[in-house]
């Protein structure tokens, strides 16, 4: 494909992104995204900006390619341990009770997560930390950790 002056300018800009000062990168970010970049290091801005500049100059992915990339990205996301492990082991409405320093603490498993003192959590660990005042494994704290068969 023969490069037009516009393509030459785009290629030149992308090649020179690593040499630009952060202030110029921030300006380019605002031009390309319509907002401030927030607290992002220049090293992380470079590939994002390069992609966005190319996308605007040459066009983005086709709808078909975009749909396929979304499917792939979704399949690569880590699965929530709550939805998998807890759902397999406990039914909604299950109550986990733990006594800690003379006080009884009750957590109820529901469709959204773990309910404790009016709040819903996605995992047991933040609840265990809140109760104990230090980092704890929630399953270990509440005694729900799977025991490996020996």
Automatic annotation (TrEMBL):
Stored InterPro entries: DUF2924 (IPR021322)
Database matches in Pfam families: DUF2924
Name of the protein in its database record: DUF2924 domain-containing protein
Record lineage: Bacteria, Pseudomonadati, Acidobacteriota, Terriglobia, Terriglobales
């Amino acid at each position: 494909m023969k490069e037009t002056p516009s393509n030459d300018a785009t290629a030149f800009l992308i090649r020179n992104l690593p040499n630009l000062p952060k202030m110029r990168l921030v300006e380019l970010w605002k031009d390309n995204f319509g907002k401030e970049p927030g607290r992002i290091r220049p090293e992380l801005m470079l590939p994002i900006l390069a992609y966005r500049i190319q996308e605007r100059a040459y066009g983005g992915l086709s709808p078909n390619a975009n749909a396929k990339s979304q499917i792939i990205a979704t399949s690569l996301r880590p699965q929530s341990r709550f939805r998998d492990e807890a759902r397999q082991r406990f039914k909604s409405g299950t109550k986990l009770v733990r006594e800690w320093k003379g006080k009884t603490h009750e957590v109820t498993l529901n469709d959204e997560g773990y309910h404790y003192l009016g709040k819903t959590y996605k995992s047991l660990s933040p609840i265990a930390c809140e109760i104990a005042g230090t980092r704890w494994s929630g399953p270990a704290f509440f005694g729900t950790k799977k025991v490996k068969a020996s």
